[in-house]
């Protein structure tokens, strides 16, 4: 890892306060100017945009690759062998397309949408139930990063809205938070992601559920968590019958796609919040702020693996790059400095 950093004379490296990690800042002067402006204008002008999978969660766990929200279900062994075999086949086929350097982003977009829709259809066809969620998450090879709760607490303490924008599954994400975080998500935290729609168990059996297609109607407005979940009052369990629209994948997580439908943009004075901190682990996450009229934005990239191969591109496109699958200490320090004028980064 250290060889990858020293190979570029154009980056400034400072120690990250976790073992074995580093911070890479290609343009320190620009970074300092952005920090000064954001800190000067105060928290009332700031909003936070975070990815979820491999950003607020670890990329590696116990020496092997951790799973995403979708993989938490695909690997849970709670559905039939046929389901898991088909889900793995989709993963192998479409992931190869996602990382294929010979394909442009424009060519990848319809493939990624097809992947998500086919994965969702498969869950519906095999009768996934709401009651399986806690078990799937409990046994998933998945863990939030150390410091995740403190990021949420800082958002609440300063009344700075935090949008968790994920191409995963909102229901899985929120169940992970319930099981792994010591406190519930504060009201300042909003989740925009693919959200499951369940019907009461009495209305359909697992066999019947296979005939139900995903809901494709426009989502309703309101409710915490971005896209409002259809009313399911009184149903502790339920059969999966669809997902809210639009479908999110790695290449279409853009604020402009949910400005009219997400409760986040109706419940906060986002038009007055002209500054943002964006945190993600993929180049696609750079576009989470697309559609927002911002004056200053600091983009922090988590480069979890393939550091030597990708460092140059990441350091050109993110203001700050964190190397290695560490904790959130640096980001917490940055937020404290910008919001409460505590310490320096």
Automatic annotation (TrEMBL):
Positions of the UniProt region annotated as Disordered: 209-234
Gene Ontology biological process: nucleotide metabolic process
Keywords in alphabetical order: Hydrolase, Magnesium, Metal-binding, Nucleotide metabolism, Nucleotide-binding
Reaction it catalyzes: a ribonucleoside 5'-phosphate + H2O = a ribonucleoside + phosphate
A GO-annotated cellular component: cytoplasm
InterPro entries reported in the protein's UniProt record: HAD-like_sf, HAD_sf, Pyrimidine_nucleotidase_eu
Enzyme class: hydrolase
Assigned EC number: 3.1.3.5
Domain of life assignment: Eukaryota
Annotated family: Belongs to the pyrimidine 5'-nucleotidase family.
Protein name as it appears in the record: 5'-nucleotidase
Source organism: Nannochloropsis salina CCMP1776
